[in-house]
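Quick one:
INPUT:
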């Protein structure tokens, strides 16, 4: 049983860096909740939804002393390459013009980040995002520029539109009714967070975005702070669901900041969802799921509607955790 207690907060410290003796010496009167006596659970990886193969791949890398950044990249690539997954990578559902456009971002323990937006014809946007992070002075590349950059880095041009997704799109065009179904096939964007044996946190997020979106639409997934945020001193958070609402609240950054202020990952995810609900009092027709992890490897997840889950792989085992929901 993990125990938390209320302790005094220093303006100079962050929750993830704190140890009980340091906290005890703080003079600031403001009280926050922080974890003081919990053993760290690392290495660890969590991801949105029940993406067993992706999390197993990431765990394999972590277990062999690999970096959290490598675990993230190669973990989420499993879903990008799965043609049966119609919400991520190859096989993703196209926009309303029939083009599959992919969004992804990645962030490392040093706070470096890279992203690609509305990338076409390239199978692994997470790897292109990593190249943006590591081999350019930029954070984001979009559209044709991102595609050109990928070719320059050796990525091959591929057809991302599978026959299945094409046929479904042609069927959709008969009515062209734009909806955002809740828990589409019980998965959606894959957002992943990992801590390696050095205690370093990285994160990644990759998606084909909303099915049949307007051409050029970009959601939360490649937006650092919205679909993903990592602070190596505190923890990380990532999101799935209707990206517009996550962008409006800068959801993942908010959750990491709430953890910095002392909330547990679970409490921070719940507050993140509540902020979205406050902005959408008359709407119940969309899903958002957040997951978060703090520096100790404590995790949490929360969503608007039931049906969301997240997968966790750590020395304690491999499990799919049903998320609690607001409704
Ligand atoms: N969360 C994925 C998107 O809205 O594009």
């Amino acid at each position: 049983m993990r125990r938390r207690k209320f302790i005094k907060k220093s303006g100079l410290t962050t929750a993830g860096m704190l140890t009980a003796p340091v906290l005890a010496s703080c003079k600031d009167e403001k009280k926050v909740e922080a974890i003081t006596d919990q053993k760290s659970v690392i290495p660890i990886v969590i991801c949105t939804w029940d993406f067993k193969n992706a999390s197993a791949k990431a765990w394999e890398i972590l277990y062999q002393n690999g970096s959290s950044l490598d675990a993230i990249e190669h973990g989420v690539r499993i879903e990008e390459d799965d043609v049966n997954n119609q919400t991520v990578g190859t096989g993703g559902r196209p926009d309303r013009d029939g083009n599959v456009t992919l969004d992804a971002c990645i962030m490392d323990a040093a706070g470096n980040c890279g992203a690609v937006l509305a990338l076409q014809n390239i199978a692994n946007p997470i790897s292109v995002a990593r190249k943006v992070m590591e081999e350019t002075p930029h954070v984001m590349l979009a559209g044709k520029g991102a595609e050109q950059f990928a070719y320059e880095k050796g990525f091959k041009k591929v057809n991302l539109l599978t026959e299945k997704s094409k046929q479904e799109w042609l069927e959709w065009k008969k009515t062209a009714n734009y909806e955002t179904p809740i828990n589409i096939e019980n998965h959606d964007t894959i957002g992943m967070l990992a801590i390696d044996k050095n205690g370093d946190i990285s994160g990644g997020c990759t998606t084909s975005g909303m099915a049949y979106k307007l051409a050029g639409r970009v959601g939360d997934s490649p937006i650092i702070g919205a679909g993903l945020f990592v602070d190596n001193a505190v923890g990380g958070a990532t999101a799935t669901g209707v990206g517009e609402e996550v962008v409006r609240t800068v959801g993942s950054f908010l959750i990491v900041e709430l953890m910095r202020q002392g909330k547990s990952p679970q409490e921070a995810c719940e507050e993140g969802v509540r902020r979205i609900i406050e902005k959408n009092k008359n709407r119940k027709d969309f899903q958002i799921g957040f997951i978060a992890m703090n520096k100790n490897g404590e995790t949490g997840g929360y969503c608007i509607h039931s049906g969301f889950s997240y997968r966790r792989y750590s020395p304690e085992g491999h499990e799919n955790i049903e998320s609690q929901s607001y409704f």
